[in-house]
Amino acid sequence: MSNTRHFLTLLDFSPAELENIIQRGIEMKREHAAGANQQAFPGSVLGMIFAKSSTRTRVSFEAGMAHLGGHAMFLSPRDTQLDRGEPVEDSGRVISSMVDIVVIRTYGHDIVERFAAHSSVPVINALTDDYHPCQLLADMQTWMEHRGSIAGKRVCWVGDGNNMCQSYINAARQFDFELRIACPPGFEPDSSLLASNSDRVSIEHDPKLAAREADLVTTDVWASMGQESEQRERAELFAPYQVNSELMSVAASGALYMHCLPAHRGEEISAQLMDAPDSIIWEEAENRLHAQKALMETLILANRA
Ligand code: CP
Ligand code: NVA
């Protein structure tokens, strides 16, 4: 309810709180590798509502809650009353009366907001059409493990102005970096989000200009979940927006590249970069587990305080 903390976008935490979660994620990764017992929440239950497909998010939350000593319950809207018209508000009230924390992956961002407004336990956005903040925790953790602070660095987003791109805009503000977005005309992120971050975020339709001297280049699929019917048309329009070695050659020396996955080799990223032995994309994926364990710990403890 009103004083319950949620994680619906990166703006729900202060920059200092985000930094603490990421540092704790780094620490929990080390503890886990050393075989430490991390079962701080025996008997806790995580409700997982997924209206869209997922590999990384589902596995990382489910495994993460097992590591913390609790239980994760996967709830498909198709098998619950959610797809039969029970209001999101009623579902939030009822489900939160039985579990300790909830993650939701869905379409409209308003759905997670409405659920959270009626939930007595923390709600985590596991991806909506507008934002994917959990991925940014993992991306920032991965950057910090390799390069330290990202403050003052130049990040280039290449591709669609989608949920990941919009989360990068929030990250630019919260982690204090410059973000250059290279997208085809007509595929820009939300204009009001851009306007409120115009001090550090800019649009450049030419990917080579956008990626010049970038410290980090990052991308995502050209057609997101729910846009499958646009896949072919988008593949033509987005063809000049591939992250490949030619594009990376204009970035800063030692620049890193990321992809939230799943990837389409030969579309938004070349097979060569995806399969390069020094790619950090697989660590980026694994860090979903560690960052989200730190996130769940933070939110469960905050809700108990
Ligand atoms: N990156 C990410 O969220 O992957 P999934 O869709 O597999 O969860
Ligand atoms: N933009 C992609 C991200 C998948 C993790 C989608 O929404 O499908």
How are the secondary structure elements laid out?
Layout (H helix, E strand, L loop, with lengths): L14 H19 L11 E6 L5 H12 L3 E5 L12 H9 L4 E5 L3 H9 L5 E3 L7 H15 L6 E5 L4 H13 L2 E5 L8 H5 L5 E3 L3 H4 L5 E4 L11 H7 L7 H4 L7 E4 L11 H4 L6 H24 L1
Parallel strand pairs: 1-2, 1-3, 3-4, 5-6, 5-8, 6-7, 8-9
The structure holds phosphoric acid mono(formamide)ester and norvaline.
Description:
The protein is α/β, with parallel strands linked by helices and 305 residues long. It folds into 2 domains: 10-131 and 286-304, 3-Layer(aba) Sandwich (Rossmann fold), CATH 3.40.50.1370; 135-284, Rossmann fold (3-Layer(aba) Sandwich), CATH 3.40.50.1370. The strands form 2 sheets. It has a 5-stranded parallel sheet with strand order 7-6-5-8-9. A 4-stranded parallel sheet has the order 2-1-3-4, sandwiched between helices. The protein has helices at residues 15-33, 56-67, 88-96, 109-117, 133-147, 163-175, 191-195, 207-210, 231-237, 245-248, 271-274, 281-304; strands at residues 45-50, 71-75, 101-105, 123-125, 154-158, 178-182, 201-203, 216-219, 256-259. It has 12 helices and 9 strands. It binds phosphoric acid mono(formamide)ester (CP) and norvaline (NVA).
